[in-house]
C-alpha cells in the first residue's frame, strides 16, 4: 500500500512540475519547441549535422518584410509573410548558381529575384521536399507537372534544418519530406528529369559533372 501511495504521489508531483513548466513557457519558446519536435521527427538519425543543430534556436525569419523590394510586396499583397531567407538557386538545366530569396507566406512559397517573382508554389500543390543525408544544405521542392510550373526548385540553404522545418510546417506536409542517400531525381520541365548525386569530399562544392548530372559534395 505504501509503495502504491508513493508511486501515486510521484506521478502527481511530476504532473504538477510539467504543468508549471508548460504554463511558464513564453509564446516564443512554445513555437521553438514545436518546431524542434518537427525537426526531430524529420531529421533525427537521418541527416548529418542534426545533433549540432539542436542547440541553435530557430529565428522567426532571416530577413524582415521591410528588406523585400516594394514591387515584390505589392505582388504578394494580402498574404501573410512568415519567413524569408537568402538562398542559392540552381538552374534546372545548366545548374548555374543564382542568388535568390525564399519567401514563405501562409499559403505559398516564392522564389524571388530582387524585384521579380521567379516561381510561386502553392502549398496545396506541393508534391514533396527532398534533402540528402549528408551535411550539405541542398533542398529540392517538388512541384506538379502543369503549365504553371517550370519544374522542381533546387535550392541551397545555409540554415537547412530551420528552412525545411518552416516550409513543411507552413505547408502542413511534414510527411512529404524525404532524406535521401546517394542520389535523387528531379523534374526539369516538359516531362524531362534530371539527376542529382550526393557524395563526400575534402571540401564542399556543387557542380555539373561530365555526365551532365548535378554533383553535390
SSE blueprint and pairings:
Blueprint: H1 2-24, H2 27-43, H3 50-53, H4 70-75, E1 81-90, E2 97-105, E3 108-113, E4 116-122, E5 128-132, E6 138-142, E7 153-156, H5 160-171, E8 177-180, E9 183-189, E10 192-198, E11 206-208, E12 214-216
Parallel strand pairs: 5-8, 10-12
Antiparallel strand pairs: 1-2, 1-7, 2-3, 3-4, 5-6, 6-7, 9-10, 11-12
Give a verbal description of the structure.
Pfam families: Myosin_TH1. Residues 47-217 form the TH1 domain. The termini are far apart. It is built from five helices and twelve strands. Helix 2 (27-43) packs across helix 5. The chain has a single domain (26-180), classed as PH-domain like. Helix content is 29%, strand content 32%. An eight-stranded mixed beta sheet has the order 4-3-2-1-7-6-5-8. Strands 9-10-12-11 form a four-stranded mixed beta sheet, with no helix packed on it. Strand 11 (206-208) and strand 12 form a beta hairpin. By secondary structure, it is an alpha+beta fold.
Amino acid at each position: 500500500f505504501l509503495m502504491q501511495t508513493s508511486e501515486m504521489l510521484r506521478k502527481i508531483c511530476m504532473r504538477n512540475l510539467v504543468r508549471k513548466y508548460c504554463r511558464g513557457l513564453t509564446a516564443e519558446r512554445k513555437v521553438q519547441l514545436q518546431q524542434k519536435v518537427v525537426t526531430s521527427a524529420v531529421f533525427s538519425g537521418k541527416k548529418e549535422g542534426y545533433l549540432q543543430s539542436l542547440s541553435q534556436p530557430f529565428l522567426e525569419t532571416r530577413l524582415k518584410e521591410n528588406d523585400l523590394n516594394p514591387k515584390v510586396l505589392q505582388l504578394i499583397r494580402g498574404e501573410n509573410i512568415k519567413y524569408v531567407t537568402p538562398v542559392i538557386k540552381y538552374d534546372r538545366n545548366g545548374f548555374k548558381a543564382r542568388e535568390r530569396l525564399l519567401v514563405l507566406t501562409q499559403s505559398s512559397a516564392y522564389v524571388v529575384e530582387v524585384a521579380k517573382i521567379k516561381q510561386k508554389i502553392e502549398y496545396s500543390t506541393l508534391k514533396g521536399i527532398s534533402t540528402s543525408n549528408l551535411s550539405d544544405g541542398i533542398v529540392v521542392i517538388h512541384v506538379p507537372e502543369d503549365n504553371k510550373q517550370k519544374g522542381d526548385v533546387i535550392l541551397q540553404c545555409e540554415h537547412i534544418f530551420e528552412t525545411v522545418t518552416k516550409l513543411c510546417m507552413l505547408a502542413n506536409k511534414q510527411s512529404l519530406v524525404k532524406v535521401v542517400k546517394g542520389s535523387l531525381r528531379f523534374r526539369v520541365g516538359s516531362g524531362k528529369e534530371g539527376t542529382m548525386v550526393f557524395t563526400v569530399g575534402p571540401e564542399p562544392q556543387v557542380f555539373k559533372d561530365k555526365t551532365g548530372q548535378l554533383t553535390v559534395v
